[in-house]
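A brief tutorial aside. Many learners find it easier to grasp structure tokens once they have seen a single protein encoded end to end. The record that follows does exactly this for Putative leucine-zipper-like transcriptional regulator 1. Read the sequence first, then the structure, and try to relate runs of similar tokens to stretches of the chain.
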Amino acid sequence: MKKSGADMSSSWNISHSSTSLKSRTTYSGSGGATPGGSSVPCERTENSLNLDFTPFETIHKWKRMLECDEFVGARRSKHTVVAYKEAIYVFGGDNGKIMLNDLIRFDVKEKCWSRAFYTGIPPAPRYHHSAVVHGSSMFIFGGYTGDIHSNSNLTNKNDLFEYKFSSGYWVEWKFVGRTPVPRSAHGAAVYDNKLWIYAGYDGNARLNDMWTISLTGDTKQWEEIEQKGDRPPTCCNFPVAVARGCMYVFSGQSGLQITNALFEFNFKTKAWRRISNEHILRGAPPPPARRYGHTMVHHDRFLYVFGGSADSTLPNDLHCYDVDSQVWSILIPEADSQVPTGRVFHASAVIGDAMYIFGGTVDNNVRSGDMYRFQFSSYPRCTLQDDFGKFLSERQFCDVQFIVGTDEVKITAHVAMIAARSQFLRTKILAARDARNQHFEKIFGTTEVPFAERQMLEVKLPGAVPEAFEMVLNYIYTDRIDFRDPFSNKIVLLMMDIYQLAVQFFIPRLEQVCIQYLEFKISKSNVLDALFNSDKMKLTVIKDYCLGFIVKEDNFYDIVMSQDFAALEKALMVEVIRKRLNPGKPTVDMKIDKNVGTTLESDMAVFLKTGGEFCDINLVLEGNIQIGDISPSREAFNSLLRYIYYGDTKMPPEDSLYLFQAPCFYGFTNNRLQAFCKHNLEHNITFDNVLQILEASDRMNVPDIKNYALRMIVHDFTQVARLPKMRMLSRDLLLDVIMAMADILGDIRVNHQDLTSISIHSDI
């Protein structure tokens, strides 16, 4: 970065890679752009800066609420929780001695508990029932009833009760025709004005049938659903959540088939889909461990899983599944959070942008009466990987061409992305550029050749497999591998080729992704092919894993007795036999070390600082760089570049003020930056930075922020006045501060003395 000679006082030349800028924006001069690139005008109503300076909750923070007093309702487990308007309603469960059928209410605004008013005959005491809300009613279905203390009259139910919130009236529905078998520990959801019941336990076996009934109209008749697709195993004690026209089921008790898979049921097609657990290819954490008695809720584009019993432990991590990217993550709570202890058979619901968790069984089989609140965040998702991936797939603005394999397949890419992520390929590109410059010097007598005369850089990779190289490119741009056909039999062999390139290009994190994926994919049916090819390609790590897999007690007999083993090379047969006789310790640890290698974000962050030799564009601030009608400060524009290059949203509040309009003006693919700017301004203006906010708001003519800053300056004047920045304010802003003080002081009422009667001799 260097000052421009045109205006040494305020103009800056900033050299950058146009590749990164083009991949993240569709700049159209004065308007925004749709994700497809067409320009659209920015509506003032959508992008004007409207801030809320009311009290707020810190995101990702757990907070313990008022515990339910035993006088109001017992501590309990196996109950249900629903949300209606500004209240949480808890029904049923057991307190460790008896089943319950009381209905208690927690007001989230008043933060207090009470017994809910009701008339009519409520459902019999029960637990492991289901509860949903439709319209202004709560519906209770099924569950387990009887006397658990004397172990008598215990039975599952298939009755349906409606509780009308407006009148507090309980009514039992009566049906015609077939009904679901009585059950407990099932799942229930509402979609398309219908109640949907799935799976559960009938007293003898776990189920996986599905039934639905309309909650509107006069016809009260159940319909059994003919399910299609990859159905979950029979299960009970699992949660369900509805999002985007689908019902999601995660884990649960399934006997020997218990799994940590996430299943999706499409209400319109009546088809199930098992969501792939191939998180390895996306560089994402694994799904939560298998469990039962947990909760799952939907908010924004996420599913949140908490608690349950996971292989005899009670974890209290909060897992989050992104429905868009299909990636799991673990949310790290704020440092001052009051995190609930692990528990099972609790219940949860969402009101506004917060999740409430109540009750459950904690350590030593103790019932809980605790209520906890977790504050969600609702930022638009980061599209960094998608944006770079789209840039690769559309092959726009490519400036390097790789000649790959013996057939010399031509594959184009972008110098900046490649150089940022692979030192090996970076060296190859620099060598190709030097060779081209020498050619220009020889032909034209100079390296400064017009763009139209420049040929694209060419880098030869004769030993690479084109399909594998395409996959490596995809990883370089997106940090993940997306196979066109993930179920192909050739995937294992292709992954070996990718691993070989990862080693050659020195991309350690991709090496580990390949090893982990091969561990995930190698099976009895393909391990011999994997062994043969790893030996041929001299991939010692993979070969050693294959040998270890073959000689395992559960695998050895089936593999050795197969026809494929009979056709195996003699030398490899000998190695298998020797490995069986002397297994020894495995020479490879297949566990991913997150500290090995670098991510897309970290590589682009380094490249932004150190990739000067690959820059191909000069950006002149206060010359041709504007956001709307203003030129951003140098610091604000650097914050914008960090966001474009690697999705960074950390910036001072004054930068947020400059950049609030940037997503619209430059045509970003979403308004994520705008959302962070708004949050930053609402929550992070303090006396330490209020003077910078005052200057920026005055420069940008944002009166509501300026007035707020002036009020804060007056309120904290003794602290603000001592800041060095105070001496640097312009004369006009100092006058604004004085006038603000005069306005506020003028509102002060003197209780004991009339100011008009004060004389020079008055004792003030």
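Self-check: The chain has three domains: 61-375, 379-479, 620-753. If you spotted this yourself, you are ready for the next section.
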